Predict the structure.
Amino acid sequence: MSREQPPVLAAWLLALSGASDALIGDLHESFTTHPSRLWYWNQVAMSMGAAAARYIQNNKLRTLRNVLGGAGILSAFVYSVACGPRVDLAAGVKVDVLATGWAEVEAVVNQTKLVPVIAFKLKNVSDESLPVLQVNAVFHRGNEDDEWGNDFRTAAGSSGLPPGADTADLMLRSQRGYTGTQDAARILTNSRFVDARVELFGKYASTSWVKLGDYPIARTLVTPDR
Amino acid sequence: MGRRDRLEPVDLVAMLAMMRLGEDAYGVSIAREIEETTGRTLAFASLYLTLDRLEQNGLVRSELGEPTAERGGRAKRYFQVTAKGLAEVKAARRSLTKMWSGIPQLRGDAT
């Protein structure tokens, strides 16, 4: 269990919202089990929203403008300053490439289709949990800049990838590849076969996509995971 | 009808979670039980709105436990379904079972 304490400002706002001791204690307990500042701030924002709803109900229209305006501005400002994602993903995750290669996928009858694939997992080497961690693989043929297929996965959901943790093994593959009447092994040795490469991009929460790496696709057969 | 005294779906789910948890039903465990059983995530503020309403209506009761360091020195608030609450849960089950039965699209769909 982490000894990390909830964000001080968020905890102060939570108390200010009139949240009960039991609710504050529940959030504190949940935070020490799964420390995520983003999650805690979300809970605080919802508690403040609930407090605003109770206040409006008790004081009707006269306070509606003040509560929505003040709480909204304050919450948005504090939330953006204190809660924005802070990890540079290019340095915050380590890509552990398990394999690259070519997978045989379904094609038309009597034809073989090979597509480039990359199997990998990500390790969170930062000190922050990474919620809604997503990866995108963009494949290229030879030295071409044009995209030759892409694949996308959500590697970690809203609960986040904790510091030091690994994602599950991921396999991303292109929709495009080579199709022929030969078997897979012969296609790989065909004189006109051009190798491929893949760029991996990642993002988490509301951050922009950042490039995690550029990897050549080995000229070998791999078994697709589905 | 003056006040809202019907059992809302979230009320029923919260009460069922309490009954499943027995003596260990407090905010964190109730939220976890609901999430693990139904896949639905409730914000703690929403959960406590529900629990407070249920207590006001006499369907659940609560008592404070001991404060602990992992909770920043704050006590847990344990919840239990009252006899009135249990009667409401049973009535809801009878009503829902009647409504669900005999629907061709749901035949053989029990989990």
